[in-house]
Specification:
The chain has 177 residues and is of the alpha/beta class. Helices cover 39% and strands 16% of the residues. Strands 1-3-2-4-5-6 form a 6-stranded mixed beta sheet, sandwiched between helices.
Length: 177
């Protein structure tokens, strides 16, 4: 599932075809200076809150959603329906996911030479020390606990945006190979 928060649809026009739209996406993954963000979250309510908070904070964010761990890895590896998926600039990863849990997804991301340079922020309701320690052992770039109050969640998203998408210099598809 993909929600585009800003800009006109890519490749749309009177002569656009599915293949021309795929070529457009492949050639111009950052059209309109969009920031590609992958949210890995199975709670529809949390997805909606995150979509709205990023929409209010940064209209240049193109938010892509994977609702379970397997879908997240398919998106990142360009498999199946995600063949034309853009490389995310940032991943927000919940821990409590179906199919593959967040720690399993994090381990797969950080073991993959093509993916490990993508900053991955664990965003979870968990405050358990074991979850925090394991996330950092698996090389999470950050661990944040989801606030319970809506206003606090919106402030957290604004801070994520300010640090990770405005101030931090992010890699552009780099690998160690």
């Amino acid at each position: 599932m993909k929600t585009r928060l800003s800009g006109p649809p890519l490749g749309r026009g009177p002569f656009a075809t599915d293949s021309s739209m795929a070529n457009c996406r492949a050639q111009q993954p950052h059209k309109y200076n969009a920031v590609q963000l992958l949210l890995v979250e199975d709670s529809p309510g949390d997805v909606q809150l995150t979509q709205q908070a990023f929409h209010d904070t940064n209209s240049a964010v193109e938010l892509h959603v994977a609702s379970d761990g397997r879908e997240a890895m398919a998106f990142l590896r360009h498999e199946g329906e995600h063949i034309d998926a853009p490389r995310p600039d940032l991943i927000l990863l919940d821990l409590n996911l179906p199919k593959l849990n967040g720690h399993e997804v994090l381990a797969l991301i950080k073991e993959d030479a093509a993916l490990k340079t993508i900053p991955t922020v664990v965003l979870s309701t968990s405050e358990a020390e074991a979850d925090i320690v394991k996330s950092y052992q698996l090389r999470a770039n950050c661990f944040l606990t989801k606030p319970v109050l809506l206003d606090d969640f919106e402030k957290l998203v604004a801070r994520i945006n300010d640090f990770w998408l405005v101030k931090a210099k992010l890699p552009q598809g780099l690998t160690d190979e």
